[in-house]
Write a structure and sequence with these properties.
Helix content is about 0%, strand content about 50%. By secondary structure, the protein is an all-beta fold. The mean pLDDT is about 95.
Length: about 120
């Protein structure tokens, strides 16, 4: 069974940066798209950013557009989320997920904590 493995979370001050990575446990894994989501206790999980496996299309939620950059690293076969100008409201557990075309997000990683605090 393929797993998605997130890394790169941590504690950062407001205005700082973090880079998250999502890697499939099987190198030959191919999907239609990879997305990053986040969740805080008591709230629904929300979409943050997504990218097609080909890398030719990206999506962002409005509140992170211009601050976060999602990208694919073909050599490492990872999807990265570069998060800049972080705000306290970006604090959450971040999850990566994959989906087939015209399908739901159905494969999820274990999550990585991001805390933005002074």
């Amino acid at each position: 069974q393929v797993q998605l493995i997130e890394s790169g979370g941590g504690l950062v001050q407001p205005g700082g940066s973090l880079r998250l990575s999502c890697a499939p446990s099987v190198r030959s894994f191919i999907t239609f798209a990879i997305g990053w989501f986040r969740q805080v206790p008591g709230k629904d999980r929300e979409f943050v950013a997504g990218i097609t496996w080909s890398g030719d299309t990206t999506w962002y939620r409005p509140s992170v557009k211009g601050r976060f950059i999602i990208s694919r690293d073909d050599a490492k076969r990872t999807v990265n989320l570069q998060m800049n100008s972080l705000k306290p409201e970006d604090t959450a557990v971040y999850y990566c997920s994959s989906r087939a075309e015209s399908a739901d997000w159905d494969l999820w990683g274990q999550g990585t904590q991001v805390t933005v605090s002074s």
